[in-house]
Amino acid sequence: MNHHRLDLEALADQLLRELFPICRSLSGDGVRQSLSILARHAPLTMLEYPSGTPCFDWTIPREWNARAAWIKDAQGRKVVDFGQSNLHLVSYSVPFRGTLTWEELAPHLHTLPRLPRAIPYRTSYYREDWGFCLSQEQYETLDRQGRYEVCIDSELKDGSLTLAEARLAGASGREYLFSTYCCHPSLANDNLSGLVLTTLLCRELAGRSRRHAYRFVIAPETIGPIAYLAQHQEEMRRLAGGFVVTCVGGPGPLGYLETFLGDHQIDRVARQAFRELGVEPLSYPFAPNGSDERQYSSPGFRIPMATICKDKYFAYDFYHTSLDDLSFVKAGQIMQTLEVYLRAVDILERDEVLVSANPHGEPQLGRRGLYPQLGGKLLPRPAALAATSGTGLPPPELDEVDAILWIMFLADGKHSLLDMARRSGAPFGQLRRLAGVLLAEGLLRRAEDNA
Ligand code: ZN
After folding, report:
1. pTM, whole model, 2 decimals?
2. Ligand 1 centre and the CA of 313: distance in Å?
3. Could you tell me if 22 and 113 lie in one domain?
């Protein structure tokens, strides 16, 4: 393992620990604090959209902050305390103070009998309400005859919605998007892992020379992308595609949620990245009940968005509970997912459409020193694609002459190097290298309107 990777993993670990305890929500100081920590490590800029701003069918809500929230029993003991876990308070709870009977209190308590030790995660963003979440085990110990003192020291005010963006320039005229959401409180996989991975990816790409432009958006789920799209309509319609980065750090297998098109360039690039890493991901078809692709890919924008994940939302037991913590998510797991994203970007950066300068019959390779000295050869090696999937090993390179024949055969202006890799089973990097030789020999030229 190289030093650079170890540095990134150490930074991921540091960010996980630093951000996990912070109370994030749709808006408020916890979001601001989280984004400003991330902005120390990547070129992110903060955006504030004022409450009441209309954006398409929505309006920016009031800003929410909570200082304290607790329930005390008849003996004055705090039996539930937001100070212990920010999951204890239903997010966006309105301020409340009072003394209640069990019958009055119980409708405001939320538990998860399926996981009796877990505190569930609940929100009440768009309906004025208050509530507490606690484990089923704790709920059962509470005195049904007792009276309870309840305090929610929260505030809903005209403030703003906080987002962060980064824009990395590129020369190709094509721009890709990475978006993640910052509205969940102390939940590690959903979606602190997404915040950390997106920051590392942004930091990494910012330090590289780039052919394409990349835009990073960190925003509260749903309302954040809607607000961002409303503020950047024309630019966003021009985006070529991208990824919604969510749930990327669990202990389970890697997964792939395809774009609404299913076979867009983004899908082809992502699938090739998995293939090259020898990973067979769990595969999820597009569905309209997912994450922020619901906004980016909506009919008015239609930006194809996919997700490379590790323990996808809905698909793991601890989803939206206090068990989705830092014993479930580790920096090393985030690094495995980051590797797939980086490989996908690498393919995007180096892919292009190449056209044969010698399309009539095949070129004479021997005359150019591109053919092995001996005529005749052993049986051509078959495409190794299926054989390495799931083994963690990259597909082996093809015989060089075979690889050159694939390139020259497919160089009709309709196939990019990525398409050629998919078709031939050769690693993308081998075709990229040989294409360089063929370009230098004048056997290929670059297509004018290039991917
Ligand atoms: Zn969630």
Report:
1. 0.94
2. 7
3. no
